[in-house]
Amino acid sequence: MGFYVNHSGDLEYLTSPLLAPVPHCFSTRFGGVSEGELASLNLGVHRGDRPKNVLENYRRLGQAVGFDPKRTVFTKQVHSDVVERVGASDCGRGLIVPVENGCDGLITNEPEVVLTVFSADCTPVLLYDPVARAVGAVHAGWRGTALKIAGKAVMRMAEEFGSRPENIRAAIGPCISQCCFETDADVPNAMREAFGEAAEASVRPVGEKYYVNLKALNALALRQAGVCQIDIAEECTACRPDRFWSHRRVGNRRGSLAAMILLRGDAL
């Protein structure tokens, strides 16, 4: 389907037409006030940035996308398959108050709750059910991918909100693509254990190394959970470290990307 590239001044972020009309975004590096190695749109609160810079970055992004930064709910990402239901009482968690419990997925059916997951090569997945009126956000590193966290978020939406998987729309955002995700045997072995023979189409051996397609594997997990409406971003974060934060390219000397989604309060 193809993602849209959106600009507001110097600010740049991506959106998927499949998730319209709910406000959402996949951030880039462009349009913030952070400096030095974190220039310029760092959205991570634990990257060594000045707090006032991070808050200003969220203010700018929120103004463009249509969310209140104080309504964000962050994940404390631990590369798990834990998906948590959150609501209005959780707003501010991460940006205003510390995140206590580890999880890598968030779901809600409450309005103006801004689900937020972070990445810097890992795979961000946003979910929207226009029928049951619910949304989800998932962080899937290779471990989370092997644990099928994206599919488990879909199942959790079905359990909590009565969502039907065929109604759920999914957008897989920019992450490291197969062209750059070189691994040892542990990663493809984990994918084979999780997906069986279906994983082979996403694993390319080159000598003693392997190149793994996390976007395709997360899409597979979604399809196995019953989702048939899936949009996948073409962009590779490792190919474009000038545009996206990439841990593979620069290590810990970097900021964080964010994928965010919410339900409008006036649309219920």
How would you characterize the overall build of this protein?
There is one protein chain. The chain has a single domain, classed as 4-Layer Sandwich (CNF1/YfiH-like putative cysteine hydrolases), CATH 3.60.140. 22% of the residues lie in helices and 25% in strands. It contains 6 helices and 15 strands. The strands form 3 sheets. Strands 1-2-3-15-7-4 form a 6-stranded mixed sheet. The protein has a 6-stranded mixed sheet with strand order 5-6-9-8-10-14. A hairpin with a 2-residue loop joins strand 12 and strand 13 (209-212). The chain is globular, with a radius of gyration of 17 Å. The model has no long low-confidence stretch (mean pLDDT 97).
Concise description?
With 268 residues, the protein is an alpha+beta fold. It has a single domain (4-267), classed as CNF1/YfiH-like putative cysteine hydrolases. Helices cover 22% and strands 25% of the residues.
Question: Approximately how much beta-strand content do the residues carry?
Answer: 25-35%
**Average pLDDT metric:** 97
CATH topology: CNF1/YfiH-like putative cysteine hydrolases
Order of strands, main sheet, comes to: 1-2-3-15-7-4
Q: How far do the termini sit from each other?
A: 27 Å
Backbone shape: globular
> Would you state the CATH class?
Alpha Beta
Question: Which structural class is indicated by helix and strand composition?
Answer: alpha+beta
Q: Provide the CATH superfamily.
A: CNF1/YfiH-like putative cysteine hydrolases
Element order, helices and strands? EEEHEEEEEEHHEEHEEHEHE
